[in-house]
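ping. complex inputs:
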Amino acid sequence: MYVWIWRHLPGPLLARLLQALLLLLAVAGVLLFVVFPWVEPQLPWNQVTVGGG
Amino acid sequence: MTESATTPAAGLAERIRWYARGLGQLLITMGVVVLLFCGYELWITGLYTRQQQHELGKGLDRTWAQAPPASPRRPTPLPYVVGKGIARIWFPTLGKGAHYVVVEGVGTDDLKKGPGHYPTSARIGAIGNVVISGHRTTYLAPFNRVDELHAGDPIVLETQSFWYTYTVTSESVVQPTAIEVTYPVPGHLGSRPTQRLLTLTTCNPKYSARTRLIVHATLTAPLAKGSGVVPAALDQVLKG
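pong. complex structure:
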């Protein structure tokens, strides 16, 4: 997967590195701002109230 | 001859290697994502709460400065608005930084901002049971160390006009369904309260939510604000 992506990035080495970094940041951003906030309420360790209130 | 003989076997080996590598990369990626999630839960959520606490604190100070101060004779209770700050909670025995703005409401979004006051529980300082819930490990973990409170330790709640010093009476671990701890008289549904109590709830053990940690306290020293008086319990925290 990573090899495939690396092969398909255009340009010289430096440009590829930069693009790889941007892709990484984009994935991290989606995880932090979309996926994790959605997943979190489904997990139990943030339940601090009693009686489900 | 040799070429046609080795090609299917080599092709199969190549294929297996391709799948194995893909699986390996997938597992490593999943591991990294899980680690990132842990970091998010433990630290990044705290950044959000820190910023929210700052905002709530500013809003609270503004509200307190604008509204006419309540007096014992003419109490002008400020309305508790869900999602807004209503008081400050101080844990003098847990260090100087151990104070948070208490938000009204115990919904998921309210608790992300700070410790939350059950809207159906008593008003702060009033007769009955003031119930406040807070996160133990995430979102700045305001109640992270409440297990270190002992009987006799002070918990101070600051409102517009009063410092209410509550004294810890007991600590217990209960089932998540134990709603009786929030009753006006804890454990006795329908009883008429005569005492001024404070109950803190948080998840227990840390990093889990199997049970709830409950801290009960009782009001020992209400003190009207003004001319720089602070409760004895906060003396060192504020001046030292």
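The helical segments of chain A are 2-8, 13-39.
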